[in-house]
Amino acid sequence: MTQKPLILILCTGNSCRSHLAEGILRTALGDSHRIESAGSKPTGYVHPLAIKALSEIGIDISGNRSKHLDEFLRQDVETVITVCGNADQVCPMFPGQVNRHHFPFDDPAHATGSENEQFVVFQRVRDEIRAVFGAYAAGRLDEAKAG
């Protein structure tokens, strides 16, 4: 059996953007790919407001964990997608890596104000990620059908 292609989504802290993207892309691509996220300096937790923002649209990432990109250095990573500038700068090449994309988004973890005000930022970034990664997933699925 052929191993599913691994798409690795990287950011610095692996607490917000990469997890939002991982959940959205996994949902959009279904079972055709393995989707993981990691960080160059992982915070060690998945931000509760990221979990809440995705649960609003029916995606559960409550079981996700914050991981270091080193966990994937010995794996065949087909595509690397960075979602922040810092991760793009420190991103190593992975064995078997074919594709690399950079889709930068604001870091909702830096949002200030009340929890409700912060959550509005998480919702905005989630919707931006959903638009970009939804289009990316549609392209990958079209590619697979044509291939």
Automatic annotation (TrEMBL):
Domain Phosphotyrosine protein phosphatase I: 5-139
GO biological process, one term: response to arsenic-containing substance
Keywords from the named record: Arsenical resistance
Protein name: Arsenate reductase
Annotated InterPro entries: Ptyr_pPase, Ptyr_pPase_sf
Biological classification of the source: Bacteria, Pseudomonadati, Verrucomicrobiota, Verrucomicrobiia, Verrucomicrobiales
Organism annotation: Prosthecobacter debontii
Top-rank taxon, per record: Bacteria
